[in-house]
Amino acid sequence: MASHSKASHRSHLRAYRASLSEAEYAAASSAICTRLRTLREVQAAATVHCYWPLVARREVDTRPFIAACVAAKQRVVLPVVETFDGAPRMVHRRYEGDDRLVTNRWGLREPTGPLVDPTELDVVVVPAFGIDRRGHRIGHGRGFYDAFLGTTAAFRVGLVYDACLVERLPSEAHDEPVDAVMTESATLLVASS
After folding, report:
1. What's the pLDDT tens digit per position in 78-117?
2. How much is the pTM?
């Protein structure tokens, strides 16, 4: 039942993202990245794990944030999907520049730098279609981030648009919530459960 409800939320949130104009998308992403850089945990981090955005699908564009982290001499790590079928598994590699990214079968850009252990991460920036006020998120539904987040004690920040921060989303026992939610106009710190 929760999966069906998650699917309907995902469909609605995907439609919202698709409705954004280029200007709206750019402005919202820029505001979210600017706000994200001010977060105390991000500023203090030596190693930041982020995702490379699927721009065509209006995923919050993290490229300015990644560039700012690099400029601040922080180590940036991006995920690499290791299994496409069966149990979800990602590994994590150091970002060494746009020219060192390769495209996987889903169109995701992935780094080729050295592997980084999840225990070395200070902050993880998590993509989502939507997040609720408890920190529970709706992702693509494949479970990659839930499996990964269970392996790290890093501070977790979910990025969504204002319209995609909702009161309550369905959640399941394996779901891994985030510690903070960043939108273009709000920073929400989630109380520990």
Report:
1. 999 887 666 667 899 999 999 999 998 878 899 999 999 9
2. 0.91
Residue type (1 letter), 7: A
**Alpha carbon distance 53, 108 (integer Å):** 8
Of 153, 91, 78, nearest in space to 122 by CA: 153
Residue 111: Cβ-neighbour burial (10 angstroms; 0-12, 13-18, 19+): buried
Write the CB contacts of 174 (distance below 8 Å, at least 6 apart in sequence).
143, 146
The single residue listed with the structure tokens 């999966």 is 3
DSSP 104: -
Measured CA to CA, the distance from residue 117 to residue 131 in angstroms comes to 26
- Whether 71 and 84 have beta carbons less than 8 Å apart is answered as no
